[in-house]
Amino acid sequence: MFEYVSPMSPTLLIVCVIVYSAVLFGITFLTTRKADNASYFVGNRSSRWYLVAYGMIGASLSGVTFMSVPGDVGKGAFSYFQMILGYLVGYAVIATVLLPLYYRLNLTSIYSFLKQRLGVYSYRTGAFFFILSRVIGASFRLYIVVNVLQLFVFDAWGVPFWVTVLAFILMILAYTFKGGVKTIVWTDSLQTTFMLLSLVLSVFLISRELHLGAGGLVNLIRTSPLSDIFIGDWHSKAFFPKQFFGGMFIAIAMTGLDQEMMQKNISCRSVGEAKKNMVTFSLILVVVNFVFLCLGILLYQYVQAKGLTIPQRTTDDLFPTIALKFLGPVSALFFIIGLISAAYPSADGALTALTASFCIDFLGFEEKPQWTEEKKTRIRHLVHVGFAALLLAVIVVFRVINNEAVVKQLFRVANYTYGPLLGLFMFGILTKRKVQDKIVPIVCLSAPLICYVVEANSKTWLGGYQFGNELLILNGLLTFMGLWIISNNQKGRE
User: Fold this and answer.
1) Across 100-128, average pLDDT
2) Are 68 and 326 in contact (CB under 8 A)?
3) d(CA 411, CA 414)
4) Which has more confidence, 188 or 442?
5) Among residues 172, 237, 304, 420, which is most buried (max CB within 10 A)?
């Protein structure tokens, strides 16, 4: 059984959180001087591509990768890496197709493409599905981090969970309130650095505890049954084609069709720099995810060597339990900092992107030149606070209903919410047909509902077949087909 051994007092841990947050506020102060709405939404289109690429590592990984991926190795081995390989193809599509499109149209909100190509209803529908996706996704990612701090620090002080969440959201709100993308490009880079330091240090400390040198570490990972990558059982949700092509389209949808991720890319000076950013980011991301999977093997080997038992509630608790209770104060310190570094990019970028999308796509900031800069700023601040409150509510609700690894929950929800976006953009880019714009919301709501029915009955209807991430592809195809049905050969908008 795990026995509680506190290598570091909760007070010292929370001091580390405060100091780290103070550094973020310092960066905010330096990057928000003379800030305006243009710097908030697209960073004045002056971001350095290498800073964007590096910072996007932290934004893409988040606390979900930090804890769920190593913990889930005990159940799925390295099968998650099949999806990572699919990511590479998806990112190539983003770099060669989507980024040139966004720059050519000089977009601030990427969903403006849908307005230009299909119409206002299609445009608002795309923006709605982004907001839905990002609110749920950001809440999942922040939840996993706050939950760890609650279990290991704040429960001991008798602090309610909702108060812990509120404190985190207020800190994130404070340093994103003014600077937006211009600030996030820099804070994400800092947070990526600490997260990667925490990952490397954790691998080193556990290897040392297991008396493994570099050669022994490589041999352990190579020979472990948990390092199996490819799954050949077509019934399994982790079947290779499902994971690979699912990963490809998840990358396209969750990065290329996501305002948060693209907002940083289109803040680069040119499309050439944005492409370099995407290629660099994708290659580094593959390596980092592989190291997280290797950490998973080390964690399970440590449990076996020390005669411990795995946390029963969820495997998400495995990494924090070992890092905070068994590996000493240095491990605890860097784990907390790494975890916070993984959490902040998930919420700060989401708040900025949600605010930008709502202000531009629903309030029509770009279509109201009569509004003064001061009025737009005041409204933007209100929207920013409103989305922060919404994240708080969703996280508190999610804690009540969560009963499995968050990484699985996250991608399952993404299969439903990003599918209509995928179908809308595919139709807009691959065809020139004109749709009946007012019917588009019905099509985009129907596709996920059909997918839900099919997934719930797939074992019965399809001979034991279980849907994995390829459900996103089905969702996108159903949306595409629905749009085709309500369209005609008359040339649509350019």
Assistant:
1) 91
2) no
3) 5
4) 442
5) 420
User: What would the pLDDT profile of 328-375 be if each residue is shown by its tens digit?
Assistant: 777 777 777 777 776 666 677 778 888 888 888 888 887 777 888 788
Cα–Cα dist 86/252, whole Å = 10
CATH number of 10-416: 1.20.1730.10
Every domain of the chain and the residues it spans:
10-416
pLDDT at 185 > cutoff 70? no
pTM equals: 0.80
> Which among 112, 167, 130, 180 has a CA at the least distance from the CA of 381?
180
The pair of structure tokens assigned to 165 is 């969440």
